[in-house]
Design brief:
The chain is 31% helix and 18% strand. It has 23 helices and 27 strands. Helix 1 packs across helix 10 and helix 4 runs parallel beside helix 6. The structure holds beta-D-glucopyranose.
Length: 743
């Protein structure tokens, strides 16, 4: 049997074959269509040497290991992220890879999330803006992105079965919003569905998610690919809008599709459409292939170093200990991580770098004076008394000590169970600080760790994340001031894990996780509960200082324009990330106290002032109205707070925004309070009350005029009120009131 639309000339069996992979990393060769390669991603190309599977994660061809998303996101710099995306595109193309499996844009819901190092932020706007540029950069080179993992894949525990139970407003505003932005602004070639279930439905067979939201509402034009092994039921998946099952499925899946078409349980058009999308992807990819493509490994290493340097966040710098002088100082470099870098996380993104810089080598290269090394702890990060004693002595006899500490491992497939750094390394820090008060601590890890209370005793603290293959040089650049730090936190560092908004509902149990904190993810939750934090979202120091003038906000076509003069008042050129947080005092909707709505990354020379402009699209002010089941902008006077972090707001401005019509039709189930709050409803009801009073009845209406009794009655639906003795109206009259109020 053949079908006649889209992928015409393919039989049903061929269509079934085309809609699952040919092997682990390729589409299937069917009829005249060749195979194309899809591979991880996201921070470097992991092209498997032997065409094998996940086994032998490092058995991949060397490629540049750019900073994983945890560090790339901390740059808050869309232009830089675009360049990294383009470089990844160049490498993919040179390696014959047509789709690079990234970016990963799930929200960092809990700091324990095992894949947080692959994701950008706890905020959907920041995630969406950066990922849009990554996709644009990559796709500008004729290589497709795979926006993943769609959706609500914010934990690794039980990831193939767990149901993320989340209300629709939270889903739309927090967990889907970055996906929506990237789809609408960058049209990724593919979107990858996640492993988990959402409100009980597997993402791979969720028609609402994959078709109604993704295609019908957002206008996605590309192909939906499954995460590797995410498909439970091929027929249900195709029916839902899942086009390509990866990796290659066994023949049973193809046979099931053919049978379902034959027995009428699957609309042939659904399979035909999916096969047509695979064909379109293959044809587009083949047209873009260039066997002569190459890339410049040195230039890409330099870009990896630039991006890593810009992703480093300076958390503390008491007394201006940093930057270190390049001459006349003896530096003790302490910690195995300085010699053996932690530069990427484990799992499907783990790839084979073209080279690997250690901080020790790069500090030695940049330092003008002697550099002495001591490992301080065992290679696995645990205590070793002799190594500790040597390190303390090395620190004592140096002018300054730089201690490298970090987590042992973070990987896809497992969440973390603690935010604490290894105790042996913290004990080492304490002893080094006691031996030499001029101590800098550099941390390497993939997601937030606790810094309190030990950071109290450490004068300078550098957040070194996982920085990719050139991270060693980037750390040296920041330590010596070759790079003036400009990275900002994309996730809150809490004082304690128990303070985190997600704490009571992570990672769930019995294959369900309740997203109990709702829209109050990350800083939204800390702010709403007025919780002290160690370092707030958006925070990061510089070697210079920035002064903010008065902000102004004006309504412009399509949104709001915020302007603020920012002056570099220090002695060094630097970069500031100007952040704009919106709130709506008196809002009728439950909101976080502040929400990031825009930001600008600006380079400002010493002594100069930049007139910074941040544009906020009106759509970004919208909230999801669960009553109307659509986006709505609430009208009113918005407060735009402008500053250097979510808790360092320096100036603000207000602007009036016209709202959308959000009137919900009144019904018999609407309460007395809702009726009276509605202008038309209030009028109609007022007339009914007056009519009842004129006829000497309807005592309840009179009582409702008493403020205290009104409070008592305001939550009563009209239908229920009609049943009370002495009601001002009958059940039949309620139907007339409803018609009148909505006419
Ligand atoms: C991961 C994806 C990855 C895929 C292919 C899965 O286990 O969740 O992120 O792209 O494998 O390696």
């Amino acid at each position: 049997m053949t079908t006649d639309a889209g992928s015409s000339r393919l039989t049903t069996a061929e269509q079934a074959a085309l809609t699952s992979g040919g092997d682990f990393w390729h589409t299937a060769a069917v009829a005249d269509l060749p195979q194309i390669m899809l591979t991880d991603g996201p921070h470097g190309v992991r092209k498997q040497v032997s065409g094998a599977d996940h086994g032998g994660l490092l058995a991949s061809e060397p490629a540049t290991c750019f900073p994983p998303a945890v560090a790339l996101g901390s740059t808050w710099d869309p232009e830089l992220v675009h360049r990294v995306g383009a470089a990844l595109g160049d490498e993919s193309r040179a390696m014959g890879v047509s789709v690079l499996l990234g970016p990963g844009i799930n929200l960092k819901r809990s700091p324990l999330g095992g894949r947080n190092f692959e994701y950008y932020a706890e905020d959907p706007l920041l995630t969406g803006v950066l990922a849009t540029e990554w996709v644009r950069g990559l796709q500008s080179r004729g290589v497709g992105a795979s926006l993943k993992h769609f959706a609500v894949n914010s934990q690794e525990t039980d990831r193939m079965r767990v149901s993320a139970d989340v209300d629709e407003r939270t889903l739309r505003e927090m967990y889907l919003r970055a996906f929506q932005r990237v789809v609408q602004q960058a049209q990724p070639w593919t979107v990858m569905c996640s492993y988990n279930r959402i409100n009980g439905v597997h993402a791979s067979q969720d028609h609402w998610l994959l078709t109604r939201v993704l295609r019908d509402e957002w206008g996605f034009e590309g192909l939906v690919v499954s995460d590797w092994g995410a498909v439970v039921d091929r027929v249900a998946a195709v029916r839902a809008g899942l086009d390509l099952t990866m990796p290659g499925s066994d023949d049973a899946g193809d046979d099931a599709l053919v049978r379902a078409v034959a027995d009428g349980t699957l609309d042939p058009a659904a399979l035909d459409t999916s096969a047509a999308r695979v064909r379109a992807l293959v044809e587009r990819a083949v047209a873009a292939l260039d066997p002569a493509a190459t890339y410049d490994t040195d230039a890409h290493h330099a870009l990896a170093r630039e991006a890593a340097g810009r992703g480093i966040v300076l958390l503390k710098n008491d007394g201006g200990l940093l930057p270190l002088p390049r001459h006349d100082v003896t530096i003790a470099v302490i910690g195995e991580h300085a010699r053996t870098p932690r530069f990427q996380g484990g799992g499907s993104s783990q790839m084979n770098p073209t080279r690997l810089d250690s901080a020790l080598t790069e500090i030695t290269a940049l330092a003008g004076g002697p550099v002495r090394f001591a490992a301080g702890y065992a290679p696995d990060g645990t205590a070793d008394e002799q190594l500790t004693a040597e390190a303390v002595e090395t620190a004592r006899t140096a002018d300054v000590a730089v201690v490298f500490i970090g987590t042992a491992q973070e990987t896809e497939g497992a969440d973390r169970d603690t935010l604490e750094l290894p105790a042996a390394q913290l004990a080492l820090v304490a002893r080094v600080v006691a031996a030499n008060p001029c101590t800098v601590v550099v941390m390497s890890h993939g997601a937030v760790v606790l810094t309190s209370p030990w950071d109290r005793d450490v004068p300078a603290l550098v957040e070194g994340w996982l920085l990719g293959q050139a991270g060693g040089g980037a750390v040296a650049d920041v330590l010596f001031g070759v790079v003036n730090p400009s990275g900002r936190l994309t996730e809150t560092i809490p004082l304690r894990l128990a303070h985190h908004p997600s704490h009571l509902d992570f990672p769930g149990e019995a294959s369900h996780v309740r997203y109990g904190e709702g829209i109050h993810v990350g800083y939204r939750g800390f702010d709403a509960r007025e919780q002290e934090v160690a370092y707030p979202f958006g925070f990061g120091l510089s070697y210079t200082a920035f002064a903010y003038g008065d902000a102004t906000a004006t309504a412009v076509d399509g949104g709001i324009e915020v302007r603020v003069p920012v002056t570099n008042t220090g002695g060094r050129d630097g970069r500031e990330v100007v952040q704009v947080y919106a709130s709506l005092p008196g809002s009728a909707v439950r909101r976080a106290p502040r929400e990031l709505k825009g930001f600008a990354h600006v380079a400002i020379a010493a002594g100069q002032t930049a007139d910074v402009v941040v544009r906020i699209a009106r759509d970004d002010l919208a909230h999801w109205d669960p009553r109307l089941r659509r986006w709505a902008v609430e009208g009113g006077e918005y407060l735009l707070a402008v500053g250097a972090s979510s808790r360092d707001l320096r100036t603000s401005a207000t602007v009036a925004v016209d709202g959308d019509d959000t009137r919900v039709p009144l019904t018999a189930e609407s309460t007395l309070g809702e009726w009276l709050a509605d202008p038309r409803g209030g009028q109609v009801l007022g007339q009914a009350f007056a009519a009842a009073a004129a006829q000497g009845g309807g005592g309840l209406a009179g009582m409702a005029a008493d403020p205290q009794i009104f409070m008592f009655l305001s939550g009563v639906p009209l239908s229920r009120m009609a049943a009370f003795p002495d009601s001002p109206f009958t059940a039949e009259a309620v139907a007339q009131l409803v018609a009148a109020a909505n006419s």
